[in-house]
Each structure stands twice: as structure tokens, then as C-alpha cells.
Amino acid sequence: MFDLNGKVALVTGGNGGIGLGMARGLASAGALVVIAARDPEKSRGAAHALRAAGGRADAIEADVTDEGLVQQLFTELERRHGRLDILVNNAGTTVRKRPDELTLHEWRHVMDTNLTSAFLCCQAAHRLLKREGGKVINIGSMMSIFGAPYAAAYGASKGGIVQFTRSLATAWAAENIQANAVLPGWIDTDLTRGAREQVPGLNERVLARTPAGRWGTPADLAGIAVFLASSASNFVTGAAIPVDGGYSIS
Ligand code: NDP
Questions:
Q1: Is 230 part of any domain?
Q2: Whose CA is nearest to atom 2 of ligand 1?
Q3: Model-level pTM greater than 0.90?
Q4: 113 in ligand 1 pocket by Cβ < 6 Å?
Q5: Which atom of ligand 1 approaches the CA of 143 most closely?
Q6: If you measure from the C-alpha of residue 89 to the centroid of ligand 1, how many angstroms do you get, rounded to a whole number?
Q7: Overall domain count for the chain
Q8: Would 26 be classed as within a structural domain?
Q9: Is 66 a member of any domain?
Q10: Which of 49, 115, 184, 232 is 20 to 30 A from 222, alpha carbon to alpha carbon?
Q11: ipTM score for this prediction
Q12: Please, which residues have CB within 8 angstroms of residue 168's CB and are 6 or more apart in sequence?
């Protein structure tokens, strides 16, 4: 049921953090995992690590905010691997600023990286995904649900991910494509490390509010990726699933 042998998965931003955690899960379940991110050396290193662990992996350089480069990414993916079954839209960034402080440039950068990238990748992937049915996994956040003063653009982009996922789920259901969003809680990665070190009291607040009593790790996202990529989730679509140690219900 969870076997992904013969499947090809693309993970944007898969060269580190949560993306690499999910890539490890998909590769261990048998998928050939293609990592797409901007830093080619880091992506090659991540693909090498997946292969060293017994998986199948490749890397293609791509900036997923650029429409032309996204087209090239999927053309190259099809040329190299001939198919695409699983698309994980994970690439993301943040600018920690209040709505009154954020510049238009920063707003666009966050929206382009977190939300427009998913739209561009889904459009480019659609032709491949509908051949034999497929899976889209979009990465949202607790900020898809909650408000926070410093998450103006980030929260807007992540709220958008949930609604975009629901649109995909309804539009593509008849083509046997399931689309779901994953909402990670506080996960220890490069994205959160700065805030954890610089924002006074953040570490203590996260630990106190998270019933699991700890920060998540990228490996905590591997299981949900395998579930949503596999036939085990064929009747699950349009869902927004927290993976947060209970943060969202406490
Ligand atoms: P990281 O900063 O560790 O990873 C971000 C990844 O995105 C990197 O691999 C980066 O690679 C890639 N990336 C950024 N911009 C682009 C771009 N324009 N084109 C292609 N790739 C890009 O962050 P996380 O692993 O923490 O975050 C991954 C996702 O999870 C994000 O969507 C984030 O919002 C979400 N998330 C994270 C949480 C957390 O607590 N960490 C909580 C909730 C959600 P490169 O620089 O090489 O391009």
C-alpha cells in the first residue's frame, strides 16, 4: 500500500530541511526522487545522500519563482525520467515583519516563493500527473490557520496554499489526481534557526505550547509524505493536515 517503486517524485526545495526529510521518506518507500532547488551543489549533495542510503535520486537546478525556469525544469525532468507521479511543493522562505513594516518587494518575494511557485509547478506538472493519476503535496504551515504579527506575507502565502490545494483537489479529482496540504508545526531547520536564536522566549514558548514537548525534525515529515504520495491516501484529497506535535489543538 505504501510502495512507491516505479514512481517518480519531484520535491522543490528538497536539498535541505523539511524537503529533504520528505525526500528521504519518499526514497525509502521506493520512489525515484528528483530534488529541485537553486543551489546545485547542495542539491547534488542531497541526492547523493539519498543514493548512499539505498534510494534512487537526481537533482535539477531550478528557481521555482521563474515561469521559464519552471517550464525548463519539467521538460528536463521528462527528458531524464519520462514520467512524474508525485509533486511536492515545498520551496519556501519568510520575512519576519509586521504588515506595516513589510515592503512590496518583500511581500512579492515571499508570495512568489511560497505560493506562486506552487501554482507554476502545478500548471507545468499537470500534463504529466494526469497520464496515470498523481499526487500533489503542498506545504502550508501553522500560519495557514493562525495569525501572527510578524507573518504578514508568510501567513497570506500559507493561507493561500490551503485554498489553492482545495481548488486543485476539486478541479483534478476526475483525472485521479489527489492534492493535499501538510501544515508543519515548529520544525528545526535553517528557516527557523535564526528566529529560535534571536527572538527572546521563542524556544520556551514553542516547547510550552507543543504538547509533544519538543521541536519537530525534518524526519517527522517523512511519514506523511509517504502516506500522501501512496495509494493509501487515494480517497484523501483537499485536506490540510497538521504535523505539529499537537500545537494546533493546544
Ligand atoms: P529551509 O530554509 O531549510 O528550506 C527551504 C528550501 O527551499 C531550500 O531547499 C531552498 O533551497 C528552497 N528554495 C527557496 N527558494 C527557492 C526558489 N526560489 N526556488 C527553488 N527552491 C527554493 O526551510 P524549511 O525546510 O523549514 O521549509 C520548507 C517548507 O516548509 C517551506 O515552505 C516552509 O514555509 C515550510 N514550513 C516550515 C516550518 C518550519 O518550522 N521549519 C513550519 C511550517 C512550514 P535553495 O536555497 O538551494 O533554493
A1: yes
A2: 191
A3: yes
A4: yes
A5: 43
A6: 10
A7: 1
A8: yes
A9: yes
A10: 115
A11: 0.99
A12: 122, 136, 138, 177, 179, 238
